[in-house]
What we know:
Strand content: 5-15%
Order of helices and strands: EEHH
Bound molecules: zinc ion
Amino acid sequence: MEVKCVICGKREEIGKIHKDYDRLARDPKGLYICYFCSTRVHKQAKDSLKAPKPM
Ligand SMILES: [Zn+2]
């Protein structure tokens, strides 16, 4: 199944063992985020939670 990352637009082929395969097979309009973007988003979310601490 070919999917397209909603963030970077990269097309990827995913197999049945992919964690998002069932969800995307059921819902073709479901959003797919590639591994690279998901790690980047998680990192940004973590960084934004950290308020800058005054020295
Ligand atoms: Zn991506």
